[in-house]
Structures are given as C-alpha cells and as structure tokens.
C-alpha cells in the first residue's frame, strides 16, 4: 500500500493464461514469428487465410500478396515509410474480429498485422494505469490485470482474439460500456505511426493533461485510416469485489423499458450490464444441443421460451452484502409490481457464466444458422424493438419462410443501457438471398436514420457501411473528416476504400 | 416511468434559481441584451471591463474595441464570416473564469461572448441526455437538472459564472472528475462554428455512434483556437440519493497516500471526491474572519491547524444506509490503523457545505492575500507534495519573508484522486515580486516536467503556458496540432497568440 512508483514489467501478455471461455476461435499462430508472411508455393496457399478472411466468411481479400508482422514501433515506421514512398496500400489489422470488413483488403493491399506487438510495457498498481502494445489480446490483458485487482474497462464477445489496438481503432463498445464508459474517456495516451512513417508519441500516463490539442482522440475510432496505433495507455478500473448476475423474463417490451428505469434507480452505481435477449435469440442459443445450455426460466420442460423478452442484469460493486440486498430489493419490487414475470440470480460463478453464455453466444449460434445480416444500431428505447418487429413482419408479409429448420431467423439482442440494438437476420447458406429478404434488409438502416438512430453504434463503417456516412453526417462535417485524412495520409495508402464514402 | 420520448423545453437556464454558494462573483449583466457592445464615450469606459479583464486581475486586454453577444448559431456564423473575410481577429469567451488568459485578447481582437446563448434545447429524462447552448452557466444547468433527478457531470469553484461551452473548450476537470470522468467521455455531441462561418453539426444525442471520425473530440480542450462551440449535448449522471462528506486530518503525506489507497478500496464505486488541503491552505481560509469558517478538527481553540494535511472525502451513492456503513468502516479502519489522526462526517447538508467551503474557497482566500502565482499540474503521487515542500524551502533559503501578515504564502491543495495538484504562491500586492520569488516560481514547471508531470492538468495553456507546449510534446505531435489549426482556421483569426507557441 502507498506504493505508486511506476513498476515496469516486460512479460508478453501471451504468456498469461486467459480466463473464461472465448466465443470466437483464436487464429492459428504457427507462422507467428516471421516479419513477412507470403505464400512461397502451392503448399502455402492457405498461409494467409487467417488474415485475409474474417471468421464470419463475409469478407475476403481477393489478392493480398503478404502479411507484415512487425515487432517494434521502429519496424512499423520503417515498413510504412517504405510503402508510402512506393504508393503501396496497407491495411492495418488487429485480431481480425471486426464485422464490417474494415480489416480485410479490398484489392491487393498488404496487411500490417499488429499481432507480434504484444508486450505489456508498464502497469502502475496504485493508479491503475496500463501501458501496452497494440497487439495484446483483450482477454489476456484482463487476465493479466486480475492479480493486481484490476480489470479492463471493456469486454466483448471477441475478447479471446481481438486486440487492444483494434479495439481502440474501432472505438469498441461492448458489455462494460454502461459502467466504464467510452474509450474516449479511458484511453489516456496512444503511440501512432502515420502513413509516412512519422511516429506520434502521445503515450501519456496522466489522468489529466490539458497541454495542447488532445490529438489522440481523432485516432480512436478512425479504423486505421489516419495512422497505425502501436501502443496504448489506459486507465483501468479496479476489479469489483462482488459480481452478481440475474436473468429476468418479461411479457412485453414496454415492461423491458420499465425495468430499465427501475434497474437504474435501484442498482445505481453498481449496475454494470443490462442486456436484452429476445425469445428468438434465446431459442437459437438453447437450441444448439451440443452446447448444453438451458434457459433457467424455462422450467424442466426445455420447451420454447416462456417469455418474449429476457434481460440480463449484472452488478459490480465493492460490498457483497450491500450489492445482494440491492439486487434482491430490485427483483422483489419488479416481481411484486408485475414488471417482470420471473427471475433468477446466479448462485455461483458457474451459474453466472452460464447466464452470460446465453447472451454472448447469440452471434456464434446465428452463424451456425446461416449467412447472417448483422445490424448494429443505436435507437432511442421508444423505437428500439420496433425495428425487430417490423423486420419480422415485413419478411412474413413478403412470404419468406421463417423459423427453425431451414427458415430465415430474425433475432434482437444488445445493450439496453446504451440504446444499442443488435438485429441479426440469418438466411440458410444453401442458396442466395431471396429477393424479398434483400429488399427487407436493405430497408433496415434507412429506417434507423428516419428514427434518429445511428447506423453504426459500435461496429464502425469499414466496407459495409461507408456509403451511409454522407447520409448521417452533414456535408461540412464529412468535408472536415476528409480534410483530416488528406492532412495525415495525403497519398491515401492507409486502409483505402474504407470508412470514407467513394464520391470523394 | 418508461417514458423516454425526448421532451423539448425552452426555458432560459438563466431563469432557474442557482443552488449553493458561488465562489466567484457573477459578471454584471446590465448590457446583456445587446448584440454589439462598444463604448460610446467616456461614461462608457468601464462597459467592457467584465469581458476584457479576468477576476484575478492578472489578464487585461490592451485595446479591445467591442464585445459581440450573438443569440443564435446563425448570428455566430454571420459574425465569424464577416471577421474572416476582413482578417479581423476574434477571442471566443464564456464566463471569463479561466486562469491562463485564454479568453482575454492580447491586442485589438474583438471578444465573441457566448453569454446570450443560454437556452436549454432538450432534455430526455429517461436517458439523461441534455442538449443546451454554450452560454448556459454550469451551476444553473446543475440546478435545472436536479428536479429531474440528474446532476451535471462536472463541478468546479467557478460554477456560478463559468459556461458549459467554456468548460468544454477548456476540457475542464474539477471536483467530480474522479467519479464521472473526462468531458471526452460525457460530451455526446457539439455544434461548432468554424472560423470562416461554416457550421459543423455534430450534435448527436446517442450514447454510441461509430459513424465516421469523432470530430467533436478535437474541439474539446482546443481553447477556442479551432472553432466556436455553440451547442453541447451531454450525458448527465443521475443525482445520487445519498451524499456524505468527511474531513480527516493526517500527520504526513505518506499517510495521505495510504489513505488514498484505503479510501479507493473501502468506498469503491461510491467515492466521488478525494481532495487535499494542506495546513497552510486551511489556515488561510479559516483566517478570513469575515467568512466565519472554522476547522472542525481544530477543537474549540480556533488556533492554527493541528494537522499538516487534511483530506476531504465525498461519497455519492444510491443507498444511504449502505453508504454510511462503508464510510464508517473506512474511518474506523483508518483511525484504528493510525492512518488518520482525527476525522468527522458531516451530519447534515449545512455541515457538508461548510466542509466543502474549506476546500473551494482556497483560491478566493489566496486572492485576498496578494498577487497569486497559480500552478495547476499533474504529478505522480510519489512526487505530488514534494513540489510544495521544495517551493517553500527554496523561498526560505532565498531569505524571502514567509507566512501571515504580509509574507509570501505557499499553499498546496487539489484533486488527489486524479493526481492533480494546485500550488499557489501569493505575494503581497504592494511591491513587485522580489527576484528570489521570481526565480523560484520560474523553476516550478521545469521541475514538474522532470518528474513526468503535466504543466497543465486542467487549466489549459492560454497565454500563460503556451511556451511549454514544445517542451512537453514532440516536434511531430506539435506539427500535427499546427496542421489541424491551419486546416480549420487557415487565416488564424481565432484566439490568435494563444495555445500554440510563437515559433511557428
């Protein structure tokens, strides 16, 4: 206690064992040591696949010649300088877990993988300030911090593969956003290499520093179009002494909205997650027999979901008895008042993890159902679930075969506390999308814009949504964005054809 | 409950009554209604004084011809376009409470005051999202939000005069930073008028929106050099149901550091302020007989401070009984373990306000002592108070007359939880600074840089500290900052001669 000297450690965060189950398989790391990875013959043709395709098989680079895997900032700077002088295009890549094609080349760009820059540089256990390289895997950082009594300020389904540099580059949100807020608040500093190889050292370790423009902010969420993030300094929060997880079932979305308000009021500062799972999403996950998951509110039958809506509530606090009392009072009030129909609180860590899996494995389960149209939108709670209902209705009206056993499935889930909805529409892989499905999914984002939502709450723009930028931001704002790009990467070698719309 | 439709209200926030005492006198508002304020004769010579001088009398505009007071964004745009076309220089100004001369003209710039743009535009009581004009006064916004069960995410001594636009432009920190974090996290959107009159509408009301670069971030803390903030959208936190304030006395700074760790551990998520007041600061405030304040740990005598250090601890939580239990347990542990020598918890709001005044009135009390050299720095806790001790020692060694009754006074206070120290050195106004004082104060910021601190934790650069920018940030980083300025204000009409160092 009382020791706040910065303690410098140099273990690889690869070396620490990761805690908890990961929803997304790790990339193979057989060729991890090499600076340049390029196929040398027919035996090698799959060498680059973990980098040139994403795990959902939606995005695929047509002809990526090589993957660069630098180990130091100096190497990143040297490689970028080389590429810049020769007008070679570069796609920076973290854990390749993005969902909008932002990290996958469009043509013959080389991939600059940060995977080999995975060292923890320093951690100050008194202040909770972590400095590490961009390629550190999120889950491994979280596990590394736990013995010091700290956790990472963000958590997401891809935690077992995604890298902190990619998280920052995409301004990742995720499951702890409600409690610990945006990366714009918790990132204290960055080291960034610009397109021409200039290194911007903005790696502050101070909570407060008002000297000059806060330049690092512009790289948070820039999706690798303005520079390559090589190091990150983060304020990480203390690990909560007590965590509780509850699952409640609700009869309508109106009740869900009531429960959101009630939970905020009753749980206050210990509320750390408030997730929605609709009945269709619950059924898809519970339906994967091999996973052995059950809906704890379904009774012994294992039949279909007894409620149209579920909410997962998590508290993270410093006093177990106090936190339990608050949670019990919330559930009592909600049950007595008819806001929830049923509810259960996990009695141990294993039960808590089972409940979390019901939420976290939804995207993985949907991938097994077919090709998935994924929508990640912000919507006011008043319009939140109407989007899912309208999508379902429009498909039904169009005569599309819906439901289990080969039909199109529509599920809604997401972060209620942040008004962030994930709408997934799966279509069996055997055939191309029926025209009616294409028509309905093409109307989702326009509907979101009409209802004053965001067409990308947390996944970013990448390839998938870049065309929407001019529809959601004014001409003047997009003009200044282009000015920033022009200033920092005048030749446009970084992540070309992404993020900014084509009509330049 | 369950109503999260955006409710639009149009009251002036001037109309609501402000709660709590304000440390800094409000500007006179006799001429508030006029778009253009300019002296028309000798009777008018003091008309512009509230705008052309700051309250500490340190900064004074030599020949400001006029103050512009637009009421709408359109007027701001029109005025800036006019100035831009004619190369007229403009200083944007909020409540004129800054401490580094950032809002005071250097030569003949006109002042663009946002004081008349003081309307609340909308507030959504379900989500806690407030949209208002830049000229709304911080304390009035806070008072306006309270009936809805919300508070502002920041609080500072100047709250009675400072404006939210100025707060955002200077990335103000203050007393709630520990709990609610940086404005980079809580500002959801901004409307900004660029130097040439272009309006950037970035006024999002969504908690999450990853569509395009997060441009608004670059204007937070830019001190009016890149554009004029006209509207602000903010995520505001729920008002805590229970607030407790405690004051403890400690025998050494080593004990202070122990208490910081202990308080973080015991109070966890309800800890909302952790302020340092040293004995010299306590004595200056208690010594202002007219204020009638007493040190509650001094016994009946009213004599000088019995402890070398004090800490003010505040909790803000949702459960009064729980919070009281946590605070009591902390104080018991700290007293039993000899970490603190004595302590008291305010029994009601009046007592809590009395304790807060002991901290908040330090800068006002110091102004009465003389001309004040103010330092606002970030330092690791290991070096935190050493700066105050070294400054005192160096002055004593130099033979400077110290202490009450006409001597130089050196006080240290500030935000322990954020490692943010305020060091104040007051010199009697009767004569210019003795050379020894000048020598010692000139060494403060170099010492901070040697100890890896920030020369401006929260006050910004303005006129006072712009020369330090190239010493604290690399050539490449300052180069990109200049590039941003050049892109957004190519003629350099906004706040010229500030923020950026001269050697352009």
From TrEMBL, chains A, B:
GO cellular component: a single term: mitochondrion
Residue ranges annotated for the FAD-binding PCMH-type domain, each copy included: 60-239
Start-end of Low complexity biased regions: 11-26
PANTHER family named among the record's database cross-references: D-2-HYDROXYGLUTARATE DEHYDROGENASE, MITOCHONDRIAL
GO molecular function annotation: FAD binding; oxidoreductase activity
Keywords in alphabetical order: FAD, Flavoprotein, Oxidoreductase
A Pfam family per the record: FAD-oxidase_C
UniProt superkingdom: Eukaryota
Cofactor: FAD
Name by which UniProt lists this protein: FAD-binding PCMH-type domain-containing protein
Entries under InterPro entries matching the protein: FAD-bd_oxidored_4_C, FAD-bd_PCMH, FAD-bd_PCMH-like_sf, FAD-bd_PCMH_sub1, FAD-bd_PCMH_sub2, FAD-linked_Oxase-like_C, FAD-oxidored/transferase_4, Oxid_FAD_bind_N
Record region (Disordered): 1-26
Family membership noted in the UniProt record: Belongs to the FAD-binding oxidoreductase/transferase type 4 family.
Biased composition (Polar residues): 1-10
Native organism: Nannochloropsis salina CCMP1776
